[in-house]
């Protein structure tokens, strides 16, 4: 046991024995460090651990206090989800109307956004990036502001390539095509490898943005069994590929939305090898790759691609700023086709947001910002899982995210998530009903929850309310 873990265990024991009562202030970090002859860093890590377990809470300029209603994160083991087993038949996709209606509800009457697909914007250095943008705009007025033709601004592309290199994934800057967010990158890549009527393999459940792209192209989706920890079932995908023509496979190997898993390197390697045997393009949505909870940056499918079959898509919208919608694609052998489609579809990408982000990456503490966000998300993931398991009906299961900011919750089978969605909305709370994550209208007793927003009494009360509403539907 590490020193900070031992300290956390000792403090937890004193809280459980009533030495520190709910609402009471515990000794400061500095005082604890002096009393236990430990470094400040060790104590901070212990307090962060206790906070993630729901035993204490920090109050600005006041210190740390025992939670009035401590969350019993260690009282029982949280049951795991079981792997999905979809029927491997292709289906037309029609989820856009449902998704649009649920997204519209997020901003209604200041509803608590547990159903939001977006991260909490308060965590982003928006003002700093905006200052760069303002300064750039003032400089550019001397000769007129011009937007960037494909492939995008050279300085931003250079910064993107540097970031990949820092994370152990060397890329060719000449492969990068800057897009209006990852959504455009995904759409362009799918358009480059398929045509209307084609069948595309997807995870099950899958992020609805992938289904949108398939629906937009008039394609069909075939859902592949997906393990909540290991990702897409490669054997099941191989069986499908041996039986029918599939134009492409769309996956999120790192912190998949909604399951939150990170595929192992062995599975990533095996998936790419399978694609190479069948000459199958893989569209890799890697928008959450910076939001990992572990000690090391995850690898990408792109790392194992030797034949240019992986079309890698990412953006800054989930990790830095959602206001500017700057994404990119690394389309492998389809690079020229994606660049052409980018020109035909949207012609240019605004230059000022590209330059502002490039300057931030060059001069500000992007990694420091990310470390802060990762720590918060990891803490809040633990708090949300524990709260769900405490207040939701018996038989509830949750995913175990290793990154990102969404939690997938399986409710007892008799609960209809659309009914729950409507009841929650009446209480000004939004959730993500599970049917949005399947082309086959599956996952009717599942919901997705967002834990990126600061943990507050309002968030906790909203989760307790959802649990009561779910119980009323039993």
TrEMBL record:
<dbReference type="InterPro" id="IPR000524">
    <property type="entry name" value="Tscrpt_reg_HTH_GntR"/>
</dbReference>
<keyword id="KW-0804">Transcription</keyword>
<dbReference type="InterPro" id="IPR036388">
    <property type="entry name" value="WH-like_DNA-bd_sf"/>
</dbReference>
<keyword id="KW-0663">Pyridoxal phosphate</keyword>
<dbReference type="InterPro" id="IPR036390">
    <property type="entry name" value="WH_DNA-bd_sf"/>
</dbReference>
<dbReference type="InterPro" id="IPR015422">
    <property type="entry name" value="PyrdxlP-dep_Trfase_small"/>
</dbReference>
<dbReference type="GO" id="GO:0008483">
    <property type="term" value="F:transaminase activity"/>
</dbReference>
<feature type="domain" description="HTH gntR-type">
    <location>
        <begin position="1"/>
        <end position="69"/>
    </location>
</feature>
<keyword id="KW-0238">DNA-binding</keyword>
<dbReference type="Pfam" id="PF00155">
    <property type="entry name" value="Aminotran_1_2"/>
</dbReference>
<keyword id="KW-0805">Transcription regulation</keyword>
<dbReference type="InterPro" id="IPR051446">
    <property type="entry name" value="HTH_trans_reg/aminotransferase"/>
</dbReference>
<dbReference type="Pfam" id="PF00392">
    <property type="entry name" value="GntR"/>
</dbReference>
<dbReference type="InterPro" id="IPR015424">
    <property type="entry name" value="PyrdxlP-dep_Trfase"/>
</dbReference>
<protein>
    <submittedName>
        <fullName>GntR family transcriptional regulator</fullName>
    </submittedName>
</protein>
<dbReference type="InterPro" id="IPR015421">
    <property type="entry name" value="PyrdxlP-dep_Trfase_major"/>
</dbReference>
<keyword id="KW-0032">Aminotransferase</keyword>
<dbReference type="GO" id="GO:0003677">
    <property type="term" value="F:DNA binding"/>
</dbReference>
<dbReference type="InterPro" id="IPR004839">
    <property type="entry name" value="Aminotransferase_I/II_large"/>
</dbReference>
<comment type="similarity">
    <text>In the C-terminal section; belongs to the class-I pyridoxal-phosphate-dependent aminotransferase family.</text>
</comment>
<keyword id="KW-0808">Transferase</keyword>
<dbReference type="GO" id="GO:0003700">
    <property type="term" value="F:DNA-binding transcription factor activity"/>
</dbReference>
<dbReference type="GO" id="GO:0030170">
    <property type="term" value="F:pyridoxal phosphate binding"/>
</dbReference>
């Amino acid at each position: 046991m590490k020193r900070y873990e031992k300290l956390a265990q000792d403090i937890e024991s004193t809280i459980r024995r009533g030495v520190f009562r709910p609402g009471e202030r515990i000794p400061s970090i500095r005082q604890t460090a002096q009393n236990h002859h430990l470094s400040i860093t060790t104590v901070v890590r212990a307090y962060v651990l206790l906070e993630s377990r729901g035993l204490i809470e920090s109050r600005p300029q006041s210190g740390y206090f025992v939670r009035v209603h401590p969350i019993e994160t260690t009282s029982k083991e949280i049951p795991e989800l079981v792997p999905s087993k979809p029927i491997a038949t292709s289906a037309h996709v029609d989820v856009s109307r449902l998704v649009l209606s649920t997204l519209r509800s997020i901003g209604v009457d200041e509803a608590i956004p547990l159903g939001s697909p977006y991260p909490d914007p308060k965590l982003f250095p928006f003002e700093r990036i905006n200052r760069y943008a303002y300064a750039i705009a003032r400089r550019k007025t001397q000769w007129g502001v011009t937007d960037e033709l494909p492939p995008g601004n050279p300085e931003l592309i250079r910064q993107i390539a540097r970031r990949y290199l820092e994370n152990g994934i060397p890329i060719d800057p000449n492969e990068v095509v800057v897009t209006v967010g990852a959504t455009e990158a995904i759409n362009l890549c799918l358009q480059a490898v398929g045509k209307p009527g084609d069948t595309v393999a997807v995870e099950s459940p899958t992020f609805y943005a992938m289904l949108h792209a398939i629906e937009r192209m008039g394609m069909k989706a075939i859902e592949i069994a997906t393990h909540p920890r290991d990702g897409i079932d490669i054997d099941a995908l191989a069986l499908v590929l041996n039986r029918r023509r599939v134009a492409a496979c769309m996956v999120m190997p790192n912190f998949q939305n909604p399951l939150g898993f990170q595929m192992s390197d062995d599975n990533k390697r095996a998936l790419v090898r399978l694609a190479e045997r069948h000459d199958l393009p893989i569209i890799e949505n890697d928008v959450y790759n910076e939001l990992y909870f572990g000690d090391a940056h995850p690898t990408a499918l792109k790392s194992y691609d030797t034949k240019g079959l992986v079309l890698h898509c990412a953006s800054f919208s989930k990790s830095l700023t959602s206001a500017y919608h700057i994404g990119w694609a690394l389309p492998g052998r389809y690079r020229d086709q994606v660049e052409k489609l980018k020109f035909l579809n949207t012609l240019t990408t605004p230059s000022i947001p590209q330059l502002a982000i490039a300057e931030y990456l060059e001069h500000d503490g992007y990694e420091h910002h990310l470390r802060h966000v990762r720590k918060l998300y990891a803490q809040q993931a633990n708090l949300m899982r524990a709260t769900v398991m405490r207040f939701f009906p018996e038989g509830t299961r949750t995913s175990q995210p290793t990154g990102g900011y969404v939690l997938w919750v399986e409710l007892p089978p008799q609960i209809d998530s659309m009914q729950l969605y409507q009841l929650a909305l009446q209480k000004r709370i939004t959730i993500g009903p599970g049917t949005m994550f399947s082309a086959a209208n599956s996952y009717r007793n599942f919901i997705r929850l967002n834990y990126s927003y600061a943990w507050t009494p309002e968030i906790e009360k909203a989760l307790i309310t959802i649990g009561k509403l779910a119980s009323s539907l039993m």
